[in-house]
Amino acid sequence: MSICFYRGTFMPLEECRIPVTDLAIQRGVGVFDSIRTYGKNIFALKEHIERLSESAKRCGMEAEKIINELPDIIKKGVNHDSAPDGDMVVKAYITGGCINDHGHFPEPDFFVIFEEAHVLTSEELRNGVALKPIYKERPFPETKSTNYLAGYMTMRGAKPNEFEALYIVNGEITESSTSSFFLCKDGKIITAPVGKVLRGITREILITLLKENNFVVEERCPLESELSSADEAFISGSVKEILPIIKVGDQTIGNGHPGPVSQHIHKLFLSNLDRWM
User: Fold this and answer.
1) H or E element, residue 116
2) Is the distance from CB of 191 to CB of 204 less than 8 angstroms?
3) What is the pTM of this model?
4) What architecture is domain 122-276?
5) 3-116 under CATH 3.30.470.10, yes or no
6) pLDDT of 125-152, one tens digit each?
7) pLDDT digits over 211-257, tens only?
């Protein structure tokens, strides 16, 4: 069963209610973070909470008290009798609350959802997926806000194999709707730098592992023009881990199949999970 923590109480998710006066509803003022568990083991909790704190500060939310409470709440929720069995995704939301003081939110609210993790299918991992390009800048890329409207609108009319949208700005690839993007080319792993993209937690862990294992990592925006000569591409995220990309728009990546580099990196990631539990 999916559960939610709100205002001091764990409850079935469908019973949770927040006020219609909350600025998350009225003006879309909200930030969140998604945290994966492997069974009851929480992946990179400290790193996710730090990023959530950064997002809240950028939005003008006075959320220090909430941030300090969240680790204990999340640990209790994961081990709650009514929590889902198996792997979970924990979504911690901080909303603007009901007071807007000229773009400053002195009384934010929060809730935490505990749901079954819907992991990638074996077919998606085996065959890879495509991304649909979106030629615009992501709003506030360094903040993990609840505003995913641009990505959702781009996916209208998407082809069956198009997994999510990929942001491309002036020929530079930044990130996809819910993931960090990596391009494998000429023996290098290329990914956009923080400042132009969200500080992906799985992205940071992958960069650490890649450098430890003598991969050459370039933190720059891959170019759209490089897609045609790339060997492989993949995206990363807390729930999806590593997912091979075989096509962007009409451009096939490599031979159109998941390659050995992304598969090796996925195995490397899985073999080091314990370091971030």
Assistant:
1) strand 109-116
2) no
3) 0.95
4) Alpha-Beta Barrel (3.20)
5) yes
6) 999 999 999 999 988 999 999 998 888 8
7) 999 999 999 999 999 999 999 999 999 999 999 999 999 999 999 99
